[in-house]
Amino acid sequence: MTGFFSRTDIVRYEGPGSTDPLSFRFYDKDRMVLGKTMEQHLRFAVAYWHSLVWPGGDPFGGETFLRPWAQPGDPMAQARAKAEVAFELFRLLDVPFFCFHDRDVAPEGATLAESNAHLHAIADLFAEKMQTAKVKLLWGTANLFSHRRYMAGAATNPDPAVFAYACAQVKAAMEVTHRLGGQNYVLWGGREGYETLLNTDLGQELDQLGRFLNLVVAHKHAIGFKGTILIEPKPQEPTKHQYDFDVASVYGFLRRYGLESEVKLNIEANHATLAGHSFEHEVALAAALGVLGSLDINRGDAQSGWDTDQFPNSVPDVTLALLHVLKSGGLGTGGLNFDAKIRRQSIDPDDLLHAHIGGMDVCARALLAAANIIENGALQAALDARYAGWATPEGSHVLRGQTTLAEIAASVTGEPQPRSGAQEYLENLVNRFV
Ligand code: XLS
Ligand code: NI
Ligand code: NI
Question: Structural domain of residue 424, as residue ranges?
Fold first, then answer.
């Protein structure tokens, strides 16, 4: 017990009628939904950086949270104090997973060797705690964007010495992820992009990024890490243009560098909307392309053009995304990582509990709604009916490449019969469940 939060007992499911704000109303982890428990479907993870590291600052002002471990002191002692509260948070929320960047958990040292030693020392502490704790590691990652050495990118830096430093950091972070039994390793291209094309050789930088990712995949196999490598798309921020813009661009990148069977995608809701897409679109496209890996479950703000990283609170939006997850057979080694932060004024420790409880309940309601839509079958029936022509022998011959353009042209017998897209009927149908 750290005494940091107001309670010491685990947050429990108490049902929709509960008046205890620190209880789950919908997230009933053992409830069966389409053959799996809610916990197995949702695979929630707490993000170390937002919940334990972010101090509540914004571009106009400094920290508001004043966490004890963020005050001046011995950095390693502070890292250990932070880890105690982190594991207390995981325990109270009863979450199955957490995620971290190397620099979230252990301070950067004066040299690379010292930084790696710090990371391994904290990993020792984690390993010890994980022997008795329920929580497992969903994914690890390396922070290749905060230090000034990475101001012009990591793998896409014009200086090969920075590329090498990034390789060293990813090697250490992936090895720690492997040691802790991590189920995935994530690469978010923090500053892999540009501020101006006037100083940027696009083709050169893409080749560097492709080489880097090939090196990472080769190292994964060399050390016997069985987890999934995930790229997390984001269109901009911190750089004006990020190369891993969205699902479509990352897929094209993976194909170009021969990695489409080695790497999947970690899709973040707020990154989807920053790219001008819906979360639903990005999840559906990744599923269609066979690269759906994991989700960073958060939300943006319709009036703000940046990554506000708020906890999810829209059941309809999450339902539509989870519908595609369920239809594609689930997330495999992936999960739902709360890449979300409480607001700057939410300075009470318990605000972290309220945020996660609310997010977990929203996702649980969305899971139930998506499962009900699937069990009802009307949405799928409408989709099947719409494409029924392609299931005929003639349609499938065309799709399988067994007919020429001339033969298809000769098959035209008259004017095709237009049919309604029935969008309003389908929207009303979905609204019956959310
Ligand atoms: C930032 C990203 C980051 C990744 C992990 O926008 O979402 O938090 O998830 O590096
Ligand atoms: Ni983000
Ligand atoms: Ni993210």
Answer: 392-431
- To test ligand 1's pocket by mutation, which of 177, 191, 339, 341 has the most ligand atoms within 8 angstroms of CB? 339
CA dihedral 415, 417, 418, 424 (to 10 degrees): 180
249, 347: one domain: yes
CATH of the domain at 331: 3.20.20.150
Number of folded domains that form the chain: 2
Q: Is 104 a catalytic residue?
A: yes
Report residues near ion ligand 3: CB below 5 Å. Answer: 268, 296, 339
| β 44-47/336-338 pair status | parallel
Rounded CA gap, 238 and 274, in Å? 12
What is the mean pLDDT, run by run of 10 residues, along the chain of 434 residues? 95 97 98 98 98 97 97 97 98 98 98 98 98 98 98 98 98 98 98 98 98 98 98 97 98 98 98 97 98 98 92 98 98 98 98 98 98 98 98 96 97 96 98 97
The reported pTM is 0.97
CA of 382 to the centre of ligand 2 (A): 35
